[in-house]
Specification:
Rossmann fold; four-stranded parallel beta sheet; 43% helix
Length: 160
Amino acid sequence: MIQKKLLFVCLGNICRSPAAEAVMIGKLKKAGKDQHVICDSAGTIGFHSGAQADLRMRKQAQRRGYAVTSISRKVKADPDFDRFDMIIGMDDQNVKDLYALTRSPEHHQKIFRMTDFSSQLSYNYIPDPYYGDAADFELVLDLLEDACEGLLKYLEKEVN
């Protein structure tokens, strides 16, 4: 039985948010909670809609055992804020853009920043690796693994 629905959001939905989705799915499967939580990802812009995630991110994630398979799409205020329990932005601008889409205080309460769940690494946001090199993609995956572990602990209170 599905108990939580998570939407991970970055700018273009080709690097950070699809990687967050893949990492979280991996963590959920490992914990035996994948039947209780749905994960998806989207971008605040639709420039890459219909495209696969960045090849560099897919390769780096695959090396760690994560399958980044999502197809880019833009956040849609009405269906997404009604469908998902938690909408998780990768950086402050993503969070600000998400707040601009909300229609009610209930929707505001669904918005989180990915690093709100970090426990080991002290970053305030997940940096965009798009214009960087392999080390930047590795850093993003390090940060996402840490934050997804924290998110899993947060969800374990509510997901059986």
